[in-house]
Design goal:
This protein is an all-alpha fold and 461 residues long. It has one domain: Growth Hormone, Chain: A (Up-down Bundle). Helices cover 78% and strands 0% of the residues. Helix 1 packs antiparallel against helix 8 and helix 12 (282-310) packs parallel to helix 14.
């Protein structure tokens, strides 16, 4: 048996296009379904109020309690994925969350709403960090930003697709087969994750080494790129315990909290804020709410592609954040409905663009079980904003009758996250400056390609 396998003749751009076309569309669809099932309660808020008598505070608590379950089970879920593989983890998560999301249609009283939203958080816990960790198995750091942007555009597209879809279902399915429009919306939007979960093993491989849809040379090349990238840009922590001792991990938790707080404010309350700014029927509101997400989808890919080409992350992140802060605060000073829509469009695009840029930082700092647990911890603690933002917004709205104080508060929180990240990373070098060229004859190359040859013929996707 040969001790090496040549990677000569492998075109990197063609290879990564092949990888991207295989895994990103599926993960994109899963991300879209995940976010849509997480935030579609924003479209049933009015129905919960008029049909079931829920107050703004009760709605905010139910929307946010999702993240308590999410927090409790996020780290264990991702540590388990590091042991059992991505496919088993993603399949379990998607099927269970789809079923639970659909079950909310049977809610009659507040405590039932709270329990199902909590369970939805439990079952969805680990999905996003699992996907982020999964991308580090396939893409070196210089290609990761764009891949993450394509993936996280699922969040933006969930608004582009989900807002009009939810509006149409609410408007035209009302009373069909004895169900209200909001019940049909939950049922229809709970089906896709169950279907996608059933297809995980047919589409994904746990790593490049095990991907039968790549040639042996391509498997070797993709694996080598990741291994060489880790040598060129060694992570500072490879164990979860070591990561817990680094204050920067907790700093990253706050930075992501600040980013996510803005995203969840938009996700849970934008339909209500725009409804108050202008008179829209549900299907019209769905189309208007789609505008910010459509612009955000394009902005994320353009900005993150530029960040990948230049190897610069910090100022791309900070610039997007400053635009978001200014836009959110400016929205408190205007009353014209289309000016409000414009400012929220800019704010949504800026804050959603910050998310894929942010995730390039923890994936550089952490690897191995540190990445599995650390990324999950950053995501889960940061996502507590998903509990805090809707609950605090509902409470402030009930108390003051206005969204303006919440928008000012959100702008301040986001600004603090920008300052902290810029302070933490001011000595960080560009990953572009230290990239290595893959060498199949190197010590790493020999070890990796030997492993691929030994395992490749025996493994299935």
């Amino acid at each position: 048996m040969p001790t090496n396998y040549s990677t000569d003749g492998v075109d990197p751009d063609r290879l990564y296009r092949k990888i991207t076309l295989r895994i990103i569309p599926f993960l994109f669809a899963a991300m879209l379904a995940s976010y849509l099932n997480r935030v579609n309660v924003g479209f049933i808020q009015e129905s919960l109020s008029t049909d079931l008598g829920f107050s703004d505070a009760a709605y905010g608590l139910g929307a946010g309690i999702f993240f308590i379950g999410y927090l409790l089970f996020e780290v264990p879920s991702n540590l388990l994925m590091h042991r059992i593989g991505a496919r088993r983890t993603l399949q379990r998560i998607m099927i269970l969350w789809g079923i639970t999301s659909a079950l909310i249609l049977f809610v009659q009283v507040e405590w039932q709403f709270y329990i199902l939203r909590f369970l939805l958080g439990v079952f969805e816990a680990g999905f996003f960090p699992a996907v982020i960790l999964y991308l580090t198995y396939w893409y070196p750091s210089l290609r990761r930003g764009k891949a993450m942007a394509f993936l996280i555009t699922g969040v933006a597209v969930s608004g582009v697709v989900g807002a009009p879809l939810s509006g149409v279902i609410l408007s035209f399915f009302e009373g069909w087969l004895g169900l209200d429009g909001w019940q049909w919306m939950l049922l229809v939007e709970g089906i896709p994750p169950v279907v996608l979960g059933s297809l995980v093993f047919a589409v994904l491989a746990d790593s490049p080494e095990l991907a039968k849809w790549l040639s042996p040379a391509e498997r070797a090349f993709a694996t080598l790129r990741v291994e060489e990238d880790r040598v060129a840009n060694p992570p500072e922590h490879t164990t979860f315990v070591a990561a817990l001792k680094d204050w920067r991990v907790y700093g990253l938790c706050w930075v992501y909290f600040s980013v996510a707080s803005g995203i969840y404010l938009i996700s849970f309350w934008l339909p209500r804020m725009l409804r108050e700014a202008g008179s829209f029927v549900p299907w019209q509101l769905g189309l208007v709410v789609a505008i910010p997400y459509l612009v955000a989808a394009v902005t994320m890919v353009v900005v993150c592609s530029h960040s990948d080409r230049t190897g610069e992350r910090r100022w791309h992140f900070a610039s997007a954040g400053i635009v978001g802060v200014v836009s959110v605060i400016a929205a408190t000073q205007v009353t014209n409905v289309w000016l409000v829509v414009t400012l929220f469009t800019v704010a949504t695009a800026a804050m959603l663009t910050m998310s894929p840029l942010f995730w390039t930082f923890p994936t550089t700092l952490l690897a191995g079980s540190a990445a599995a647990g650390g990324i999950a911890m950053v995501n889960s603690i940061g996502n507590l904003s998903g509990f805090a933002a809707p609950f605090v917004t509902g409470w402030i709205r009930d108390t003051t009758g206005s969204f303006a104080p919440t928008l000012w508060l959100n702008g301040g929180v986001l600004l603090s996250g920008i300052v902290l990240l810029m302070t933490m990373t001011r000595k960080q070098r560009s990953s572009a400056s230290s990239a290595l060229v893959v060498d199949a004859e190197s010590e790493i190359g020999v070890a990796v390609t030997d492993r691929i040859i030994d395992r490749g013929p025996k493994e299935k996707i």
